[in-house]
Amino acid sequence: MAEKPQIIELPKIGDRRGNLSFIEGAGKHVPFVIRRTYWIYDVPGGEVRGGHAYRENCEFVVALSGSFDVVLHDGRQEYRYHLNRSYYGLYVPRMMWRSMENFSTNSLALVLSSTDYSEADYIRDFEVFRKEVVR
Ligand code: TYD
């Protein structure tokens, strides 16, 4: 049985000087060892990112600023998440077709990854993905 995507609430330390949240990997808040971090920003209105799956890499996505939708497909079912709070993250298991869309102006998507970047890990054709995942 494949793993399910999951919204994870992060710590939020409230303070009159402002809020502070944090993420620790290796099972503390994110169920993997964090190997790489990247962020997506300056997305023009109406653009869609992603449109691929990873064979091994799993991710944790946080809307550090603004909002956007993460649309996932496990080969059978679609899952749609609207991220708009910096103290919630979405865990995306490996072998999930993933797109990101509806970026608000000035949104900032932080992505934590479990593997180094490798183009060989990507599946960029949905039919190839569907055949590999539904076995
Ligand atoms: P890609 O993962 O296809 O972006 P998105 O899923 O947001 O549409 O990556 C876009 C480009 O950036 C692609 O040429 C690969 C490169 N890239 C890296 O070099 N290192 C990385 O860690 C990532 C995520 C992408």
UniProtKB/TrEMBL annotation:
Residues 4-132 form the Sugar 3,4-ketoisomerase QdtA cupin domain. SUPFAM superfamilies: RmlC-like cupins. Pfam families: FdtA (PF05523). Gene3D superfamilies: Jelly Rolls. Transmembrane segments: none annotated. InterPro entries: QdtA_cupin_dom, RmlC-like_jellyroll, RmlC_Cupin_sf. It comes from the Bacteria. This is FdtA/QdtA family cupin domain-containing protein. It comes from Candidatus Rikenella faecigallinarum.
